[in-house]
Each structure stands twice: as C-alpha cells, then as structure tokens.
Amino acid sequence: MADRQRQSDYKKGSLTLSGTIAMGTGVMIGAGIFALTGQVAEYAGPWFPAAFLIAAIISAFSAYTYIKMSNKYPSAGGIAMILHKAYGQSAVTGACALLMAFSMVINESLVARTFGTYTLQLFDAGEKQWLVPVLAVALIAGAFLINLAGNKYIGAVSKITAVLKVGGILAFAVAALWASGFSFEAATTLESSDYSFTGFLAGVALAILAYKGFTTITNSGGEVKNPERNVGRAIMISLGVCLAVYMAVAFAVGTSLTIEELIAAKDYALAEAARPALGGYGVIFTVTIAIIATASGLLASVFAVSRMLAMLTEMNLIPHSHFGMPGRIQNHTLVYTVVLAALLAVFFDLSRIASLGAIFYLVMDIAIHWGVYRHLRHDVGAKGWILLSAIALDAVALGAFLAIKSAADPLIVFIGIAAIIVIFAFERVYLHRLRGGSGVTAAQHKHNA
C-alpha cells in the first residue's frame, strides 16, 4: 500500500497531440497577453510589439534544446530529467529544477491575480482592490479541485478553453484594428527616444515569460502519445499560435491606447483597450475571454508543476513530507503548489511577480543550455552553435532586465538573487546529508494510509 501511494501515477499516452498543444497554449496565452502586455510596454514603449517578436525568436532557440532532449528522453519530469542527464545527482540539478518549479508557481500567481484584476472590470469595485487576491485564491482553489480529477478532465477542459480563448482574442484584435482603421498611431504618438535599448531588452526579458509555457509540454513528455514525434511538434505549433495571437493583440492594443494610457492600465490593458474601440459590450467580451484564458492557463500550469515536483521527490533531489495527508506524492505536491501560488498572489503585485518569474526562468534556462552543450549535445545530436546562441540571447535579456530593475525596484532584484543563493545552498546541504546517510528521501518516507 505504501509503495503504491508513493508512485507518481504517470499515465503514458494519456495526452494526445491536440491536447498537448491546448495545454501549452493554455499556459502561454493565459499569462502572456492578459498579464504581460502592459508590463512589456512599460519597458519597451512603442516598440512593445517588437519585444514580443524578439522574445518568440529567443524562445525558439531555447525550445531547440528541450525538443532535442525530449525526442531522445521523453519524460514526465521534462526539465528535471534534462538537468539530471546533464549534471547528475548534484546541487545544480536540484537547484535549477527548483528554480523552474518556482518560476511556474510564480506564473500561476501572476495568472491568478490577472484573473482577479480583469474580473473586477465588470463591476464598480472602487477601492475594493483587496478583492483581487481573494479572487486569485478562489481560482487557484478551483484549479486544485479539477487537477484532482485527473488528466482526462484536464485535457478536455484545455481543448475547449483553448478554442474559446484563441478565437475570442483574435476576434478582439480584428475588431479593435477594424475600429481604428488599421492604424497604429495611438501608441506611436510618444517619442521612441524616450525609451532606451536596454529598456527594450528588459521588455523582451519579460515577454519571454509569455512563451515559456512551452516547457509545460516538456514536463508532460512521458504522458504524451508518441512523445518522440509529438513533443517537438506540439512545442513549435504552440509557439507559432501564440506568436500570431500576441502580435495581433499587440497591434490592436496599440491602435486604441497611447503608451501612457497602456502603462496606466498595465494590469488590465486589454480591457482598457476595448473601451474606446468596442464600447461597453466590448469590455464585457474581453473580460470574459480573459477569465477563460487565465483560468485555463492556471489549470494547465498547476498540472505541470505538481508533476515536476513529484519527480524531483522521486529522484531524491528534494525532501518530502506528507504533513498527515493520505494518498500519493503527486497529490501532496499539488497541495504544495497551490498553497505557495496562493501566498504569492496575496502578498505580491503583478509587476513584482513577473520580475521574479523572469529572473528565475532565465537563470534556469541558461543552465539547461550549458549543461546540454557541455555534456549531451553529441548524445542527442544538437548543434553547438544553436545552444551557445540560446545562452547568449538569454544572458543579454537577463542582464538588461537586472540593470533596469536595479534602478527602478532594487528590492525585487535583491529578493530574486537572495532566493537563488538560498535555493543552491539548500540543495548542497540536503544532498550532502543524503549522501551521508541522513535526511528523509522519497524512498524512505512512510506514508500513512
């Protein structure tokens, strides 16, 4: 009984190609468009559509590494598997895998707060902004319950919501562009010289978060039908769909709002853009699509990160405690995931949540590419120059982002760097104790029925 409870219960072939694409686009579109459009514009100014385009190119270079690894080693742990293959049972493996997991949890809190912010646009909330974290936590709780139901329901919900939100967002974009006469004058009224190239690159770093949901597909590789073929296809199709949607929306928002207006309403940019272009009914339509997009995005992200944490536990890279909870490890990690996401949604605003997510993700991504370049590129048949290009692109974006944030919000940079140091130190201590025969491992841990 105890052994069965410790199993992560991955089901091979439980995710089809279409379901996997829906899950990947669900995470990306849920976070990217609604949560990050205004945030990116704050850094990149009138060039914010180009920031989304450059971010897609960088993400494509990054995806190359993940696709090559997943083609040969499909795994339900995805990123944890890649790190383990590259660095072995080391602190680098555990710490970078945790950075990715925390980045995904941060993304969940980002999406949840976006859900709350957009939902309030339907009402005259006034000063009741405390309702934003309340709604965010409610959404996280709902995603938790659906995830308990299993892959069958997650895949079905993802497919339906993917069609609704992609179609709805494109309808918003076309309507807004049509109403403006396909002009991009509003956002370009501000002098582009008011924004620096470093600021533009910082915007690119944030925009990368809008695409990093493709790693959700990697993390679910062991559960995808024909993973050697379909994981790569799902990643590239998802990136292509999201790029098309992002560019359409970026231009649509740019036709309706000036940069000053866009930045002022950065937490609910699409709803604000719908007001002048489409009127009150347009706002209702846009908010409805935002609710669908953020809810489904959170659902898919919780699915992926809880599986990843379960695999880290099984690999003895992180400790595990059931805290009196019955059932399997994957259900326990699901609880940890939603609790941490809820705490972040309550105590951090959208800007700081996005900043932490960008820092964690880019550091982890660089480590992935370097590990594959140094140890695995011949094994998986990856081209060295593409891997090094991915590292360079990530490093430039991260450096620019840290430079801008150090001047504008040094506290969040300090929190991000301090958290990375603590995570690496924790892993070194934990693995040292584990090798010394002390500590609790997944294999040793006894679960009460």
TrEMBL record:
It is a multi-pass membrane protein. Keywords: Cell membrane, Membrane, Transmembrane, Transmembrane helix. InterPro entries: AA/rel_permease1, APC_superfamily. Its main location: membrane. The chain crosses the membrane at residues 21-41, 47-67, 87-106, 130-150, 162-183, 195-214, 235-259, 279-310, 331-348, 354-373, 385-404, 410-431. The keyword Calcium does not apply. It is found in: Cell membrane. This is APC family permease. GO terms for cellular component: plasma membrane. GO terms for molecular function: transmembrane transporter activity.
